[in-house]
Amino acid sequence: MTKAVLDSGVLVSAFLTPKGVSAELLYLAYQEVFQIYLCDEIFKEIKRVLLEYPHIRKYYSYSNRQVTMFCEGLRAAVNLVTKLPSIKTIINDPNDDMVVACAVKAKANYIVTRDDDMLILKKYKWIKIVPPEEFIEILRKETL
């Protein structure tokens, strides 16, 4: 089965836009079309963005409890990766290295992101780095 690491931006988008492509990816994972792998650092980033970014809270109405429930539900549905290797590959944003490290430890096939600093790589070792729209097309082709 295809393994993927979804970065925090994709997961935040899934929370904020329940009818968007990121939310559709979560639905497909729940339907066991592919497996999601995440690490604690990605969960911390999701919570930080949703709970502490005032410009997001200004445009979207949700409670802290909804964020907690989203993260708890997500944690129960994904494969949790621990003890990440030390990887330094994202020059413009070293904080993104945790996503790559998570994918390496999980032996993931894909990193799904909208982050240009990661997308510009296109690939890290065997791991393809793609935006959500491309990943959903890949999944559709695999399941036909």
Separate helix tally? 8
Distance between the termini: 14 Å
In one word, what is the shape? globular
Described by its quaternary structure, the protein is: single chain
* Largest beta-sheet characterization: 6 strands, mixed
By DSSP, the count of extended strands is 6
Structural notes for this entry:
The protein is of the alpha/beta class. About 55% of the residues lie in helices and about 15% in strands. The protein has one domain: Rossmann fold, CATH 3.40.50.1010. It has eight helices and six strands; from the N terminus they run E-H-H-E-H-H-H-E-H-E-H-E-E-H. Strands 3-2-1-4-6-5 form a six-stranded mixed beta sheet, sandwiched between helices. Strand 5 (about 125) and strand 6 (about 125-130) form a beta hairpin. The radius of gyration is 14 Å and the shape is globular. It starts with a strand and ends with a helix. About 30% of the residues are buried. The model has no long low-confidence stretch (mean pLDDT about 95).
Structural key phrases:
single chain, 144 residues, alpha/beta, Rossmann fold, 8 helices, 6 strands, 54% helix
Question: Quick summary of this structure?
Answer:
Helix content is 54%, strand content 15%.
Reconstruct the topology from this structure.
Layout: E1 3-6, H1 8-16, H2 21-30, E2 35-39, H3 40-52, H4 54-59, H5 64-77, E3 79-81, H6 97-106, E4 110-112, H7 116-119, E5 123-124, E6 127-130, H8 132-143
Parallel strand pairs: 1-2, 1-4, 2-3, 4-6
Antiparallel strand pairs: 5-6
